[in-house]
Structures are given as structure tokens and as C-alpha cells.
Amino acid sequence: MSLDSSSSLHPALKSGNFLPNLNQVEEGTHLFVSLSEMVLEHIFYHPCYAAAELALDATEEASIQAILGDLPVESHFVSTLTDKIIAAVKPSHKSIRVALSGADSHSYRSLLGGKIELAEVNPALGIRGVSRYARDEFKVQFSLECQVIKLLREQNIDVEIVVPFVRGLSDAAKIIDLLAEQGLPRGLQGLKVLYTVDVPSGALLSERLLHYFDGVVINLENLTQFTLGIDCLNEELEYLFDPESEAVMQLLDLTMNSAANSNKPVVLVSSGFVQYPRLQDHLAEQTNIELVVTA
């Protein structure tokens, strides 16, 4: 859901831009980019299929070759994502926040060559975020995503890295090390790294996690889903899905207080924020929070 002039958004809340598939939401000072969404919308093939020497059927092979043209996978992947992000940057944007892959194995299995993904029983709670970047079979994708960020920085674009699905302190330490190995150490030439609260542990440990990061992004729908134990895509349970529940609100407050105590920014990402007036009222007095409403 995108914002428009008729949306009932609290006037005290400010909004930024979100770039899942190049649909701008509203003018803002920051651009928020989801690389996993861009892969699903613009790349269409799994970036690790070639490195894994995956056996493709003739149709898949022909489809991928039609997408790549004469380019190798690495060049096509990096140039496609980089060019689309650069094209979306506006003079009003003070920084570009680029979220590394946060999609689950179910989403990536839908790509050409997606059979490289494990068939997990519960993908939503499976190999995603830092646990994905650290696995050998997915290191190619992580490296390519880091190349996108480095190329943007070489174009003098102020990029901040956002790390989805940080589940605990070990994840925090691991991703900082992995980024440094890719030539993206936190603090180098002002490089900032934020983490995403997708699960309750990211909120409960926020005070300690923020020692590793320069800010926090709250994925409201993910946090609600995992806090209440409700599949947000299950229509039979839709009546129970409530981002304004006391449990979710307490986790939001805990995260925002930790960020305020650390003097670090909070970004709230939501696809249905205009539907939650009580939550809008609750957040309106927060001075260090930025809102990103997704399509």
C-alpha cells in the first residue's frame, strides 16, 4: 500500500522513499532499497546458480541466457541493480539505505535456477539474513550484493547498509566481520551499518545490538508476525494479525528507547501503516523515528 493525499497518516510523522521495484512512495530525505525485492522484480534468476553448477532444464537455461545476453552473471547482476538504484536517487536524498537480502528460501526458489535453495519446512523461520550470508553456497550472492554497495559508494553516493534478520549478538558480530572481509568495514569513510528488527530478539537485545550498529530498522509486519506467531499470509488468521497489540507496542517502545539512549536513528518500515491510527498516535511524539511505507 502506498501513501497518497487521501491516506490518514498522522501529520507529525515523516515518510521516506522505498525502492522494492522502483515504485517511489513519497518524497523524503532517504531512499530505502530492498535488494531481495529488486532481485525478485528485476533479476529473475538466482545469482548462485552458476557457481553451484546447477543442472538446468532447457527452458530455464534459455530464459537465463535471454536475460543475460552477452554478460556474465556477475556483471549483469551488479550493473542491473546499481543502475536502477542510481536512477532512483534524487537530489533530496541525503542517504541511500540498502537492505541486504532478507527474503526466505521459498521466495528465492521461485527464481530461475532457484532449485539451489533448500526445501525448508518453515522458510519464514529458516535460512535468511545473516545465517544466509554466512553459508558457503550463498557467499556468491553476498559478495555480489556487497559489490553493488561498493560501486554506489565509488559514485559518491552515501550508502548505509541495512542488515535484515539479525537474531542475536552472534549475528551482529558475524555480519560486521563478513562486511569487513568484503572491503566494507563499518566506519570506513563514514560507512554506517544498521540492523533490522524482524523478530522479538532483535528488540529485546536492541540496547546491546546497537553497540554493533549505527541505527535500527523495524519491519513492522515481520515483527508482528513473529511476536504473535501468526502467518500474515494466512487469510484464516487475518483477524488476529494486530500490529497495535500490546506485545508489539512494547517491543517497539523498547527498541525506540534503546535507540534514543544511543542517539541513533530508528526507521519503521510497514506496508499497512495507514491502517493503524492508534500506532500512529503512539509514535507521533517520537522525534528520532523515520517512516517508510512500502507498496
From TrEMBL:
The keyword Metal-binding applies. InterPro entries: PEP_synth, PEP_util_C, Pyrv/PenolPyrv_kinase-like_dom, Pyrv_kinase-like_dom_sf. Keywords: ATP-binding, Metal-binding, Nucleotide-binding, Pyruvate. Pfam families: PEP-utilizers_C. One of its GO terms (molecular function) is pyruvate, water dikinase activity. Residues 98-266 form the PEP-utilising enzyme C-terminal domain. Belongs to the PEP-utilizing enzyme family. This is Phosphoenolpyruvate synthase.
